[in-house]
Design a protein that fits this description.
The complex is a heterodimer of chains A (414) and B (299). Chain A is built from 17 helices and 14 strands. Chain A has 414 residues and is an alpha/beta fold. In chain A, strands 1, 2, 3, 4, 5, 12, 13 and 14 form an eight-stranded mixed sheet that branches. Chain A has a four-stranded mixed sheet with strand order 7-10-6-11. A two-stranded antiparallel sheet of chain A has the order 8-9. In chain A, strand 4 (124-126) and strand 5 (129-139) form a beta hairpin. In chain A, helix 8 packs across helix 9. Chain A is globular and about 95 Å long. Chain B has helices spanning 2-43, 61-67, 70-102, 108-123, 126-137, 142-149, 166-191, 195-203, 208-236, 240-245, 257-266, 271-298. The relative contact order of chain B is 0.12. With 299 residues, chain B is mainly α. Classes of the chains: A alpha/beta (414), B mainly alpha (299). The interface between A and B is medium-sized, with 32 and 30 residues.
């Protein structure tokens, strides 16, 4: 008959103790983001597994959800002090989160670990605190339908605003439902202000801010509004501007109804899937006459930050460093079809795909520009500007008045 | 003494029993309705509600800010227009279709086909309805194409994108989506009107419109009033249809109380002011609900 020997009990107790001790020694990091659903299934988990293997004693729990849900979850988490250790961030959120003291300053962590700051494409700072790194960037170049351009006799793709206006006029044939440009200004998602309007300002190395305050009445923004109005007055913008969404913008381009659009590089595969025959090219956003400097490239990003309330900031910083490191960053952005947060990382799709390769060249010769990143209630600012732009396009006010009214609204938020 | 005690105990048990039976419902109502309502009312009197762990008392500040905002008054007016027009047309169209489906003059097969067709809008969710109407009313959509071919319009109309037409367009889409409720309710009411009334009216030589005015409508009045009040309360709170079709724009031309509140909460992150706006909507709805309850009691 089988009998339990005292020695067996001792071995079992030792094994349990060992297991329990190692389990207690593990630090579990919670990482909230919206990236996992947007990446190939299991790929972000695989990166986390690699991180765990490289950092014994640290486990990562991914808390994933759609973008909007994640945004709400993070806002509430910041208020209630239950924010995850590591959080995926959009630049538009960081000001609010910083105002709630929810984000840790990564400057001391960078100094303590002698982190090479030159390797990252950007560090988002609020009140001097380094609160976010863009891990992956989705840049917004101009997509040009080459067949429509050729039919319209546009042989040289536009490089300046004047050339763009001319090309848009030539490509417009309203009787055939064909227009030169598309501008989505739906108030449901006012990101068109950032991607399709302010991108003209940033492309020419200009700014909508001055000394940390809005400068919408300045020449750069007024000129941009005047330019957009001239495109509208010339009838080159596809109708339905005030309710058009980004998705509809892409649909119109896919269906040969617009010649040019400013759009995220992330949509290249989608466009090809929707219309494999579409012959298009990518160009940088045209600049003001005579500008020869570096071009600002509008972008949206997957940012990353650390919770100020995290009890495991040291481990959290290890995860941030890991995701920002050259090889891992290249791997992540290759999966996301995005551009890297680490300037040394080179995603594999840029060599395998001509369009991405060209966009990567544009990316390398320019710089990332998105002044809404870090602004308070960025979406609200876009909505306010959107309303004024709509009033201008319906003829209710001039570009100068639109800029002045938007400035007034923005100042109230600052 | 013992008997007295037992009797008191029995009385207590009898008094408590109803509350025990009601307690599951009371707990559910308390948790799912009263608690959120009271919480939101509380937020409306706080500064930086939800966003701060230690919100301070704000008094009536957020209510004052809302009443001083011209966009709020515009959205209130748009809500009233949207709601009143929707209810009136839901009722009118619902009545016409119900009379048509109740008529013996229409072939039964055709009647059955119409019954299915007329009820279709009710089967779609608000999102589908919004997408359908966005596609139909877009500048290059079917509606413009037909109107241009008929020579009724000279150029394409931007139904949802023009400040002049947007509110009418979303109201139209909502009318299309909501009339089946009236139609079905009125049809049930029509089928319950005794035929003797019409036979007596025929003997008296009453004309069709006289029968409608003096028999049908009075007989249907309780249903008309009940459904109109409910429809008014529901329509006042419509959000997805307006949000998906216009987002409250262009400019503020289709801003209604629901989109106004949503923007305050999720665009401006001003959850305190959004709570104040939600409380205002609650008070308006409460007024209508009390009116409805009083009417039901009076019946």
């Amino acid at each position: 008959m089988f009998r339990i020997q005292p020695a067996m009990l001792k071995i079992a107790a030792a094994a349990w103790l060992l297991g329990a001790t190692s389990a207690m020694a593990d630090t579990t990091l919670e990482f909230t983001q919206w990236w996992e659903p947007e990446l190939p299934a299991g790929s972000l988990r695989a990166i986390m597994n690699d991180f765990e293997a490289a950092n014994p004693g640290i486990k990562v729990t991914l808390v994933s959800g759609p973008y909007a849900t994640t945004r709400d979850q993070i806002s509430v988490g910041a208020a209630t002090g239950t924010l995850s250790d590591v959080v995926g961030l959009d630049g538009a959120w960081v000001n609010n989160l910083n105002a709630q003291n929810a984000l840790a300053d990564m400057n001391p962590m960078m100094d303590a670990s002698r982190f090479d700051k030159t390797q990252v494409a950007d560090i988002i700072k609020v009140d001097g605190k380094a609160v976010m790194f863009p891990v992956a960037s989705f840049v917004y170049p101009v997509f040009v339908n080459l067949d429509l351009a050729a039919q319209a006799g546009v042989t040289k793709l536009p490089s300046t605003r004047a050339e763009f206006l001319e090309a848009a006029k030539k490509m417009t044939h309203a009787d055939k439902n064909q227009y030169g440009w598309v501008l989505p200004l739906s108030l449901q998602t006012p990101s068109g202000v950032q991607n399709d309007m302010m991108s003209w300002v940033w492309a020419s190395g200009q700014s909508m801010m001055a000394g940390g305050k809005p400068a919408l009445e300045g020449k750069p923004v007024v000129d941009m509004l005047t330019f957009v109005k001239s495109l509208n007055d010339a009838g080159t913008i596809s109708p339905g501007i005030a309710t058009k969404t980004e998705q509809e913008k892409v649909e119109e381009f896919v269906n040969d109804r617009v010649g040019m659009m400013i759009d995220s590089l992330a949509h290249v595969n989608l466009i090809r899937k929707r219309n494999p025959k579409l012959n298009f090219d990518l160009i940088p956003v045209p600049v003001v006459e005579g500008y020869t400097g570096k071009r600002g490239l509008p972008y949206a990003s997957w940012g990353i930050g650390i919770s100020a309330g995290s009890k495991h900031q040291e481990e959290a910083w290890k995860l941030v460093q890991y995701l920002m490191s050259e090889k891992v960053n290249a791997k992540l952005v290759s999966l996301a079809n995005a551009f890297p947060g680490n300037v040394k990382a080179k995603p594999d799709f840029v060599t395998a795909d001509k369009a991405f390769g060209k966009a990567f060249e544009i990316f390398k010769t320019g710089y990332l520009a998105n002044e809404f990143t870090g602004l308070p209630v960025a979406e609200d600012l876009m909505t306010q500007f959107d309303v004024q732009a709509q009033k201008m396009l319906t003829g209710e006010q001039s570009p100068e008045q639109a800029a002045a009214n938007a400035q007034k609204g923005w100042m109230a938020k600052f | 003494m013992n008997r007295q005690k037992r009797s008191r105990h029995h009385r207590l048990k009898r008094a408590v029993a109803p509350y025990l039976y009601l307690s599951p419902s009371l707990v559910i109502i308390g948790l799912l309705m009263l608690l959120p309502m009271v919480t939101v009312i509380g937020y409306s009197f706080q500064n930086s509600a939800v966003l701060r762990r230690d919100p301070s008392f704000a008094g009536l500040k957020h209510y004052q800010a809302i009443f001083a905002d011209p966009v709020f008054w515009a959205s209130l007016w748009h809500t009233l227009y949207f709601t009143c027009m929707s209810v009136v047309f839901h009722m009118t169209i619902g009545m016409i279709f119900a009379l048509m489906l109740n008529s013996d003059r229409i072939n039964p097969t055709l009647r059955n086909i119409l019954r299915v067709l007329y009820i279709l809008p009710w089967l779609f969710t608000a999102v589908i309805i919004a997408v359908i109407w966005r596609l139909l009313l877009e500048p290059n959509g079917v509606v413009n194409s037909i109107l241009m071919q008929l020579g009724l319009i000279g150029s394409k109309i931007e139904w949802f994108s023009s400040p002049e037409t947007a509110l009418h367009a979303v109201t139209f889409a909502n009318i299309w989506a909501g009339y089946p409720l009236f139609m079905v309710s009125l049809l049930a009411g029509l089928q319950g009107i005794p035929k003797d009334f019409y036979e007596a009216a025929d003997i008296d030589g009453a004309k069709a419109y006289q029968k409608l005015i003096f028999i049908t409508i009075p007989q249907l009045m309780p249903i008309i009033i009940s459904i109109s009040l409910l429809d008014f309360i529901w329509t006042m709170q419509v959000f997805p249809l307006i949000w998906i079709t216009t987002g409250g724009g262009p400019i503020y031309s289709t801003e209604v109380l629901s989109t106004y509140t949503y923007k305050l909460a999720f665009s401006s992150y001003n959850l305190s002011q959004a709570a104040a706006s939600a409380v205002i909507i609650l008070l308006i709805s409460l007024g209508l609900t009390l009116f409805y309850i009083r009417y039901q009691k009076a019946r």
